[in-house]
């Protein structure tokens, strides 16, 4: 079994980046959505990344951004992946991909038509994040959905030939249960925090569970 994608998202400080980048995670996420509590200014992120030089890929999280907004972020931050967390359309994804030539991951909220949402973006999205649906909140809620549905999402993403990450309420105490379903990846934010900052102990505990799960299947 190949190593799953592990994205540590919602980094808000140099200290956060120092902790998350010291792990074996594959991706670090930064939220560029102004009305959210994990919003970070791109010029700060640029400084942190330049100082620490993480080996992980950098993911920028947006909600229905304009081309100009993404351009501004890219002026400061060397993004590897653009993650869209809103009600973006297929044409918006295509415009963003054409403008920047970067992979675009689309967030799908777990609900009755979750698979239909993925089908809409077939051949356009370069990956998916399935997250819990909480009214009035875009993400980072710490709320998990019914993980028995994970194989259904995995099958659709496999058919499309792109990865599917699972988000929402993942923490050291329950990650083993999620890994049982063998997702392509996991996306964590609140589950690796204490008092609004990333916690090295929780990060290490998550990564240990991931490594042990891979070893047990290999």
TrEMBL record:
Gene Ontology MF term list: phosphoribosylanthranilate isomerase activity
Family according to the record: Belongs to the TrpF family.
Domain N-(5'phosphoribosyl) anthranilate isomerase (PRAI): 7-208
Annotated pathway: Amino-acid biosynthesis; L-tryptophan biosynthesis; L-tryptophan from chorismate: step 3/5
Pfam families: PRAI
Keywords, alphabetical: Amino-acid biosynthesis, Aromatic amino acid biosynthesis, Isomerase, Tryptophan biosynthesis
EC category name: isomerase
InterPro entries per record: Aldolase_TIM (IPR013785), PRAI_dom (IPR001240), RibuloseP-bd_barrel (IPR011060), TrpF_fam (IPR044643)
Amino-acid biosynthesis keyword on record: yes
Phylogenetic placement of the source organism: Bacteria, Bacillati, Bacillota, Bacilli, Bacillales
Organism: Halobacillus aidingensis
Catalytic reaction list: N-(5-phospho-beta-D-ribosyl)anthranilate = 1-(2-carboxyphenylamino)-1-deoxy-D-ribulose 5-phosphate
EC code(s) of this entry: 5.3.1.24
Protein encoded by which gene: trpF
Gene3D superfamilies documented for this protein: Aldolase class I (3.20.20.70)
Protein name: N-(5'-phosphoribosyl)anthranilate isomerase
One GO-annotated biological process of the protein: L-tryptophan biosynthetic process
């Amino acid at each position: 079994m190949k190593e799953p994608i592990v994205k540590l998202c919602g980094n808000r400080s140099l200290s956060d980046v120092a902790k998350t980048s010291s792990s074996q995670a594959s991706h670090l996420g930064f939220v560029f959505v102004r009305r959210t509590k994990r919003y970070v200014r791109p010029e700060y992120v640029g400084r942190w990344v330049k100082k620490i030089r993480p080996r992980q890929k950098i993911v920028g999280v947006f909600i229905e951004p304009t081309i100009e907004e993404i351009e501004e972020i890219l002026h400061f931050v060397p993004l590897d992946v653009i993650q869209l967390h809103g009600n973006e359309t297929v044409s918006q994804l295509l415009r963003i991909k054409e403008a920047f030539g970067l992979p675009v991951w689309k967030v799908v909220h777990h609900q009755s038509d979750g698979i239909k949402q993925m089908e809409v973006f077939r051949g356009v999205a370069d990956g998916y994040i399935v997250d819990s649906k909480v009214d009035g909140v875009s993400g980072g809620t710490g709320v998990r959905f019914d993980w028995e549905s994970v194989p259904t999402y995995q099958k659709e993403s496999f058919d499309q030939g792109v990865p599917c990450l699972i988000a929402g309420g993942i923490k050291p105490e329950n990650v083993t249960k999620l890994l049982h379903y063998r997702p392509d990846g996991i996306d964590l934010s609140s589950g690796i925090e204490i008092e609004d900052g990333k916690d090295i102990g929780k990060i290490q505990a998550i990564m240990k569970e991931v490594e042990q799960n891979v070893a047990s299947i290999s």
